[in-house]
Amino acid sequence: MSGNAINGRRVVVTGIGVVSPLAVGAELTWKRLIEGQSGIGRITHFDPSELPAQVAGQVPEGPTEEGGLTLSDWVPVKDQKKMDRFIHLGLAAAIQAVEDSGWKPENEDDRCATGVMIGSGIGGLQTIYEGSLTVSSGKARRLSPFFIPSALINLISGHLSIRYGFKGPNHAVVTACATGVHAIGDASRLIQYGDADVMIAGGAEAAICSLGIAGFCSARALSTGSNDDPTKASRPWDKDRDGFIMGEGAGVVVLEEYEHAKARGAKIYGEIGGYGLSGDAHHITAPAEGHEGAFRAMKAALKNSGLQASDIDYVNAHGTSTMADDLELDAVERFFGDHAKNLVMSSTKSAIGHLLGAAGAVEAIFCLQAIRDGIVPPTLNLENPARESVIDRVPLKAQKRKVDVALSNSFGFGGTNASIILKRCKD
Amino acid sequence: MSDIADKVKKIVVEHLGVEESKVTPEASFIDDLGADSLDTVELVMAFEEAFSVEIPEDAAEKIATVKDAIDYIEKQKAA
After folding, report:
1. B42 → closest Cβ in A76, A79, A144
2. B2 pLDDT higher than 90
3. Which of A30, A150, A351, A357 falls 20 to 30 Å from A363 in CA-CA distance?
């Protein structure tokens, strides 16, 4: 099982970190996810009453040991104001992942062989908003010297490298809602090509601010019909779905060349089995007909994996709770053909909302946890499917299910698509 | 200690996240208090805001210690 190795180099995951609306912490998020909890509630980061969409998945505040965000446990107080919230959340997830992996480069060669690729879909939107207010009120000279480094997307990668001395490739992906998958996939290839032995990869997002919500409202992308019943708002494939729910958070993995991980006795969550990318060349926000771009991304990932479609047990769908859900369903059914009836597929956005640039990374981690625990997470609120399918979409409750191979889809504005295959690691 | 000195010290503690006891008149922002070049730009802005003074760039470049800041502001306020 070394399907997509390049020069004999395979890539495994040896550390995971999650910051989500369910919890700060990969395991607590997973526990609450499979219990069927929802992280969606009324927006409190700002007063949303002027806007049609008023619910979102916000990271809970509170003590770290209870799964809440206590920022000073992750970022020194004096540095907090030098970073937008998306960097705070990205660092919290990245630090978890690095600590979980136990990887500590102890010499210059090891430091130079360890890189970072953590992106974001939007970056420091709230920082940009506040900075523009400073300038527009005639105080341009008072703009903080940290304004630019606070807003820049690649600064999670920058800060993390400084914290740990990771001197390998330092990079950041920006592909809207496909960022997380692209980051993990591209970082894996850097390892396969020998540019690094270890890469810290993923995505972070914190766009639950007035500018972010107003922007997606104007694009008619957000759910507006469940402001009084937030936990029911995100309902992928359900006939009553009416738009996505914004979430915030971050997902980060430690990717490591297999022999490198084995040599140091690292715990291995799973292997990067395959990765595929495509572009729609169709429309800035709408998917192409039949979601053919998604089809091609899955096809490319499968080809890269050296596996058969029938090897795949679980699909973590993009499934945002919009009209596009059924287009993805069409593409998945077409892609898997006769095997579709054996598949399980769920959308975990039903519980945490759409984490935009972090979504693909968090969902890839859920796939690894599904493989490890033999449990597939549910699609909450899927009470009345808009259309029937032979695919079990895991409505309402998690299911026990042996998963050896999982595929996760992410699609972004601009017509960018990415699929990643994660599999149980075998010698 | 003058009101100005007190206020300068408070701003330094707040912006650089250092112990109050370390903020002595002789303390250098960069060498003793862990500031980098961007921190010092922000500190000068904070002084400007707090004391309603203008600190031009060439003057700001010469403010290296806590005492430098206090002296400059006191001079501006006296003028």
Report:
1. A144
2. no
3. A150
Q: Which CATH number applies to A11-262: 3.10.20.740, 3.30.950.30, 3.40.47.10, 3.90.230.10?
A: 3.40.47.10
Beta-ladder partners of A274: A421
**Which of B16, B38, B49 is closest, CB to CB, to A142?**
B49
Is beta strand A55-57 parallel, antiparallel or unpaired with respect to A270-279? Answer: unpaired
The string of pLDDT tens digits covering residues B41-50 is: 999 999 999 9
**B54 is in which domain, residue-wise?**
1-76
A112 is catalytic: no
What is d(CA A358, CA A166) in angstroms, rounded to the nearest whole number? 22
Give the gyration radius of chain B's Cα atoms: 11
Distance (Å) of CA B70 to CA A12, B24, B29, B43: 56, 11, 13, 12
**pLDDT digits over A408-423, tens only?**
999 999 999 999 999 9
Interchain contact A142–B (C-beta under 8 A): yes
Q: Inter-chain contact A78–B45, Cβ cutoff 8 Å?
A: no
User: Tens digit of pLDDT for each residue in A220-261?
Assistant: 999 999 999 999 999 999 999 999 999 999 999 999 999 999
Give this prediction's pTM: 0.96
CATH of the domain at B33: 1.10.1200.10
Cβ density class A162-194: b for 16+ within 10 Å, e for less: eebebbbbbbbbbbbbbbbbbbbbbbbbbbbee
- Write out the catalytic residue numbers of B: 36
Q: Which residues of B1-32 are buried (b: 16+ CB within 10 A; e: fewer)?
A: eeebbebbbebbbebbbbeeeebeeebebeee
Q: Quick one: fold of A270-421?
A: Peroxisomal Thiolase; Chain A, domain 1 (3.40.47)
Q: Per the structure block, which two tokens stand in for A287? A: 């998917």
